[in-house]
Design a protein that fits this description.
Layout (H helix, E strand, L loop, with lengths): L2 H10 L3 E9 L5 E4 L9 E9 L3 H15 L11 H17 L9 H20 L6
Antiparallel strand pairs: 1-2, 1-3
Helix pairs in contact: 3-4
């Protein structure tokens, strides 16, 4: 297989949906942006493909990818698995309860809810959470 096809297959197996840019300002400082760096009058230092999650999590993923490529290993935060699973289950229940009674929801609520539901279900599988 061609290398680009392998990369495309690898990326398609994950929920990658966003591209963020590490920009370098003319004064030397760096920052992450969801828009191309030229819109901020800066140069592109790095491009990262990350999951479609809130901005703070996208930046964390990009920083982790950068550290991994540079050979630095970041310590994963210690989390209580049962507590995290319960938190995810509660959030999923809250989202699903908005739709359980057949009430109309505006599109600007439905679309983010669908994306977040997919992300929660992926996390539940990733941590082998049991949801009843």
């Amino acid at each position: 297989m061609k290398p680009l096809l392998l990369i495309a297959l690898a990326l398609s197996s994950h929920c990658y949906a966003a591209t963020i840019y590490m920009c370098k300002a003319y004064n030397g400082s760096t920052f992450w942006s969801s828009a191309t760096c030229s819109t901020h009058n800066a140069l592109i230092d790095r491009i990262e493909t990350v999951a479609d999650v809130p901005w703070d999590q996208q930046v964390q993923q990009a920083e982790a990818n950068k550290a991994r490529r540079e050979g630095r290993v970041q310590q994963a935060p210690q989390i209580d698995g049962a507590q995290y699973c319960a938190q995810l289950a509660n959030e999923l229940y809250e989202i699903e309860s908005r739709y359980s009674k057949g009430q109309w929801q505006p599109v600007d609520v439905v679309n983010p809810d669908q994306k977040r539901t997919i992300a929660i279900r992926n996390e539940l599988r990733r941590y082998n959470c049991r949801v009843q």
